[in-house]
Amino acid sequence: MITCRPPGDKSIGHRALLLAALANGRCGIRGLSRAADVTSTATALRALGAAVEPSPGGVTVRVPARLRSTTEPIDCGNSGTTARLLTGLVAGLGLSTVLDGDASLRSRPMRRVVYPLQAMGARIDYLDRAERLPLRVHARASGALRPLRHRPRVASAQVKSALLLAGVTAPARVEIHEPGVSRDHTERMLAALGAPIIATVSEGEATIRLDAQDWDGELSSFDLEVPGDPSGAAFLIAAALLRREPVTVQGVGLNPTRTGFLEVLRDMGADVSERQGRVCIGEPVGEIVVRPPTRLRPFEIGGHLVPRVIDEIPVLAVLAARAAGRSRIEGAGELRVKESDRIGRIAANLGLLGVPCREQPDGLEIHGCDAPLEGHIETGSDHRIAMAFATLQAEPGNRVHIDDPRCVEVSFPDFWAQLDRVAS
Question: What would the pLDDT profile of 13-43 be if each residue is shown by its tens digit?
């Protein structure tokens, strides 16, 4: 039995840092991911006046007075989560700043966050290309933001979280109706810290209501040990499946909005069990055990499942290449506007390896094969493409080379060492 422990959950790490900067008192965060994306959020908060300081096993966060405007642009690096959530937080607080990022982040859409914030009364301008970074959030002289009722076309945890952070800090009433269930870390953590927020799910759609207008705005201080990242765990599990070895993942987050990957593995014939051990600020944490089938079965992904597996689709596509039959992924057009066009990248790289694959506007059709795979993977410096195709190295007979192995540092700095332990 292979045993592994993924790094701290990146999504929870971002949110823990942001909420700690709003909390009433000093907060401790242990097990924070060392990924470059999370570091971007910590650096941005320091620029806004928060003290984010090293402590045994993690960091402490405190705000001497109140977060402040800054005249120097804040560099969000490659982190879309940093850029989008920070836009909501800064707009809600009424601060002035410029948010920017690297070339990849500058190519990713910001309108989905900016437009509803502007509808609330925030003043936000694009400084170069329309709907892209860099952008300027203007200070608000007085008054709160207006209430918002928002129905996004696509379920997005980043958009939802940005609007909730704006509502918490403004304060303002925010109601969001999502066409699917995106990851709900922000709602869980806000509720656990005392915010007046209610989330419900009905017929695959989610409704989130934050009624902050008559709230005192006090978020409780906290100490948090960040759960292991289930998205990071997915790559290690996939490598173990390709090696046909059972695997135990310890200390991992078991939030139901993040475990759709496990449902797909069950459809593929794997024996999957989850054991919850504790709850931290609304987040269930425990252990996952996965035992491989004799042969992986094909699968279909679409509809309400897509938001729950959006980050794992690249590695699921790689597993589909080794399944006995045709797998289909649809309704995943959001992958076109990630760090790369992931649908295009997956299709191109599967083609380079000789795997039959048909690219669709919003998905893929993949025909699994048994032949050993050999080729040079072009990642486009996308960390999830690199890690997904690297899992093929764990399967005997494959010879797969990754063109930019360092790009994984964005989300999983220890990936290569952990993959070696699974594959050896």
Answer: 999 999 999 999 999 999 999 999 999 999 9
Summarised one tens digit per residue, pLDDT across range 254-307 is: 999 999 999 999 999 999 999 999 999 999 999 999 999 999 999 999 999 999
Q: Is 311 among the catalytic positions?
A: yes
Contact 174, 163 (CB under 8 A): yes
CA–CA gap between residue 157 and residue 181 (Å, rounded): 9
Sign of CA dihedral 202, 180, 360, 265: negative
Among 125, 311, 362, 414, the one annotated catalytic:
311
Q: List CB contacts of 128: < 8 A, sequence separation 6 or more.
A: 106, 134
Distance CA(387)–CA(405), nearest Å, equals 8
Tell me 228's DSSP state: B
In the numeric block, the tokens 């589909």 are attached to 320
Tokens, residue 104: 């990849």
pLDDT for 214: 85
Per the structure block, which two tokens stand in for 230?
Answer: 């289930």
Using a 10 angstrom Cβ sphere, with 0-12 exposed, 13-18 middle and 19 or more buried, the burial of residue 416 is: middle
